[in-house]
Amino acid sequence: MRAEAILATRDLTIEFKGFKAVDGVSLNVEEGTIHALIGPNGAGKTTCFNLLTKFLTPTRGAITYKGKDITSMKPAEIARLGVVRSFQISAVFPQFTALENVRIALQRRRGDSFDFWRSESLLRRYDREARGLLEAVGLSEYEKTRAGALPYGRKRALEIATTLALDPSMLLLDEPLAGMGHEDVDRMAELIRRVSANRTILMVEHNLSVVASLSDRITVLARGKVLAEGDYKTISGDARVVEAYMGGMHA
Ligand SMILES: Nc1ncnc2c1ncn2[C@@H]1O[C@H](COP(=O)(O)OP(=O)(O)OP(=O)(O)O)[C@@H](O)[C@H]1O
């Protein structure tokens, strides 16, 4: 039996001066799954992602989260509902340590004041939870390292930790593996799998082998439209998908 759609779009469309970058997309992301959005360059993945995360406003169509219409909400409003975009929203402060960054994110979730220079004792209360999150993303040994000094892959893991600090029920990941070497790719893929427990994940990702191993469901976009949808076996055996990727793939 199929799970319920937690995030859904209907006829989602955005036009830039008459050009439809996303054209009539209807998506159903099921609760508790890892759902990937893939497609050749220029397919409309980033634009679609920006629509879902409310960084762009659609020309037409609707987006619902848990049955609630979120089409005209702002990123901060959907974050309060539990839909959080990693990387862009979860800014990491380079001058603070990994532990401090997670503490600040926890403080933000609680809505405490930002004047952390005055409230060292208050922040100590978050230490235990922050350490737990650092451990969850494999960064325990880096807790005292300034975020700016972390190696690239570790920095992105820290971004995941600061996002998890907001306790999202749905995590939207924009190319989580971009720019990573093999070792970091494996580590991040494992991390995504781990944090997907009790959560829904939607990710735009170019690394097809990781998409294949992680995703429960994949939507293939091409020229702004949904070309195919299904598990990896289904979409990789679809001649239209193979054709759309020819010449445009960078996995
Ligand atoms: N603000 C904009 N104004 C005009 N055209 C845009 C705008 N944003 C995106 N486009 C166009 O929409 C199309 C889809 O772009 P988008 O970046 O969403 O594709 P993508 O699938 O994410 O590509 P890539 O894999 O290269 O990142 C492209 O042709 C792009 O040039």
Automatic annotation (TrEMBL):
Record field: transmembrane: none
Name of protein: Branched-chain amino acid transport system ATP-binding protein
Cleaved signal peptide residues: none
Residue ranges occupied by any ABC transporter domain in the UniProt entry: 7-248
UniProt superkingdom: Bacteria
GO CC terms, sorted: plasma membrane
Keywords: ATP-binding, Nucleotide-binding, Transport
InterPro entries assigned: AAA+_ATPase (IPR003593), ABC_AA/LPS_Transport (IPR051120), ABC_transporter-like_ATP-bd (IPR003439), BCA_ABC_TP_C (IPR032823), P-loop_NTPase (IPR027417)
GO molecular function, one term: ATP hydrolysis activity
Xref: Pfam families: ABC_tran (PF00005), BCA_ABC_TP_C (PF12399)
